[in-house]
Automatic annotation (TrEMBL):
<dbReference type="InterPro" id="IPR029751">
    <property type="entry name" value="Ribosomal_L25_dom"/>
</dbReference>
<dbReference type="GO" id="GO:0022625">
    <property type="term" value="C:cytosolic large ribosomal subunit"/>
</dbReference>
<protein>
    <recommendedName>
        <fullName>Large ribosomal subunit protein bL25</fullName>
    </recommendedName>
</protein>
<keyword id="KW-0687">Ribonucleoprotein</keyword>
<dbReference type="InterPro" id="IPR011035">
    <property type="entry name" value="Ribosomal_bL25/Gln-tRNA_synth"/>
</dbReference>
<dbReference type="InterPro" id="IPR020930">
    <property type="entry name" value="Ribosomal_uL5_bac-type"/>
</dbReference>
<comment type="similarity">
    <text>Belongs to the bacterial ribosomal protein bL25 family. CTC subfamily.</text>
</comment>
<feature type="domain" description="Large ribosomal subunit protein bL25 L25">
    <location>
        <begin position="6"/>
        <end position="93"/>
    </location>
</feature>
<dbReference type="Pfam" id="PF01386">
    <property type="entry name" value="Ribosomal_L25p"/>
</dbReference>
<dbReference type="GO" id="GO:0008097">
    <property type="term" value="F:5S rRNA binding"/>
</dbReference>
<keyword id="KW-0694">RNA-binding</keyword>
<comment type="function">
    <text>This is one of the proteins that binds to the 5S RNA in the ribosome where it forms part of the central protuberance.</text>
</comment>
<comment type="subunit">
    <text>Part of the 50S ribosomal subunit; part of the 5S rRNA/L5/L18/L25 subcomplex. Contacts the 5S rRNA. Binds to the 5S rRNA independently of L5 and L18.</text>
</comment>
<dbReference type="GO" id="GO:0006412">
    <property type="term" value="P:translation"/>
</dbReference>
<dbReference type="InterPro" id="IPR020057">
    <property type="entry name" value="Ribosomal_bL25_b-dom"/>
</dbReference>
<dbReference type="InterPro" id="IPR001021">
    <property type="entry name" value="Ribosomal_bL25_long"/>
</dbReference>
<dbReference type="InterPro" id="IPR020056">
    <property type="entry name" value="Rbsml_bL25/Gln-tRNA_synth_N"/>
</dbReference>
């Protein structure tokens, strides 16, 4: 199992003020945990993490070198971003074993324009953008891709219908990935939206008039 080294420094889990100081220094607070692994609070350089989270590298297999000591295999299991700056605020590193499956969340990428939209007037909607898979670390996919060109109006596509190689579905089988509504349903949805917009317009116009009378 080939691993990419990521340097980390142990830290004492503390207050939000302490973690704020770390972020100002270009560091990201993190935690390393997993089966048979006591939870360890660490910090990693934001610039190093940016390279690991580059497109196509979401589940790079890592060796966390904590305080200069290697031998800590991991993947980035999850991370949190600031709602305004979108800077990563915290990372969870999950310990991995090359023989033990892990459950990960990967994006679903849909390619092509469905015939049900192009020729049949259907309305396409992607309902689920991420699914959970269970697989050994070396076989974690970057994404699950699906060509949707040949799908017709009236289609509801479920997670259980995805073709997975080297991985098992961990999301519920009936998770809806996408739908292509029929022409009549698409028109009904458009009409409902138009009616809602029309109903809201008089109320919006009345508000300035009421203010003007005061």
């Amino acid at each position: 199992m080939q691993l990419t080294t990521l340097k980390a420094t142990s830290r004492v889990a503390g207050s939000s003020r302490a973690t704020g100081r770390l972020r100002k220094e270009g560091l990201i607070p993190a935690v390393y945990y997993g089966k048979g692994q006591e939870s360890v609070s660490i910090s990693v350089k934001a610039q190093d993490v940016a390279k690991i989270l580059a497109p196509g590298k979401r589940y790079t297999l890592l060796d966390l070198e904590i305080d200069g000591k290697a031998g800590n295999p991991a993947v980035i299991y999850s991370y949190q971003k600031d709602s305004i700056s979108f800077a990563i605020e915290h990372i969870d590193f999950l310990k991995i074993d090359e023989k033990m499956p892990v459950t990960v969340r990967v994006p679903v990428v849909l390619n092509g324009l469905p015939v049900g939209v192009k020729n049949e007037g259907g309305l396409f909607s992607q309902i689920t953008r991420y699914i959970k898979l269970s697989t050994v670390p070396e076989k974690i996919p970057t994404n699950v891709a699906l060509d949707i060109t040949d799908f017709h109006a009236g289609t509801t596509f479920y997670a259980k219908d995805l073709k997975l190689e080297g991985a098992e579905l961990a999301s519920p089988e009936r998770t809806v990935i996408f739908t292509i509504s029929t022409k009549s349903k698409a028109k009904a949805a458009a009409a409902e939206t138009a009616d809602a917009t029309a109903a809201a317009a008089p109320a919006a116009a009345a508000a300035p008039a009421a203010d003007a009378k005061k």
